[in-house]
Specification:
about 200 residues; alpha+beta; Lipocalin; 6-stranded antiparallel barrel; two-stranded antiparallel sheet; 2 helices; elongated
């Protein structure tokens, strides 16, 4: 009799555990699906700042680059990328300026966002502008919102989409170069990123 009771209780506990696991998996899957369906429209601009410096002399292709979103990003009056979220990227090329070399180069690509809850979402970005101050970046963001292309060369500070960084040039939305200095982007260097087409 005791064996039957124990077997019956064990079967109930095992069934309950399996049911709980199944419902947790289903809930987690639907929660993950809703979180990864983040939709940031193509052409949306996102303002970010570097969390750690990146130096062309020390960086290697594949090194991680992390920036944080400095303002809520909205679409249809809804926040789609909250302030404080991280934008993840990597170094694609790095060449410090040394004797015999004409320029220093630092290639960066930003390819995902990490929400505050840790959910990582793939999003392709192009660098619209890079600046060393929030005032310069504010102007770049205004220009970007107005639809200017890569801070158009016709009305731009010297150096393409590099603002307040003497001797620096931004090209192709990924490559920062300098023929006068080593490319080093300090912590809190600011970027305006533009979401590429999906």
């Amino acid at each position: 009799m005791n064996r039957n009771k124990i077997s019956f209780l064990a079967a109930i506990l095992l069934s309950t555990a399996c049911l709980a696991q199944s419902s947790t998996d289903t809930g987690a899957a639907s929660s993950a699906a809703s979180k990864t369906s983040l939709s940031v429209p193509s052409g949306t601009t996102v303002q970010v700042e570097l969390i750690k410096p990146v130096d062309a002399r020390k960086a290697k292709p594949g090194d991680e680059v992390v920036a944080k979103v400095t303002q809520d990003v909205k679409s249809d009056d809804k926040v789609v990328l909250p302030k404080g979220s991280k934008v993840m990227g990597k170094v694609t090329q790095a060449q410090g300026r040394a004797k015999g070399q004409d320029e220093s180069q630092l290639g960066l690509v930003f390819d995902s966002a990490v929400l505050k809850d840790g959910t990582q979402v793939p999003i392709s970005f192009a660098i619209q502008a890079v600046a060393n101050s929030s005032a310069a970046m504010s102007q770049a963001a205004i220009d970007a919102q107005a639809g200017s292309t890569a801070i158009s060369m016709a009305n731009n500070a010297p150096g393409g989409g590099a603002i307040g960084l003497p001797g620096f040039t931004l090209s192709d939305g990924t490559l920062i170069t300098s023929s006068t200095n080593n490319v080093r982007l300090e912590r809190e260097t600011r970027f305006v990123l533009r979401v590429n087409g999906h």
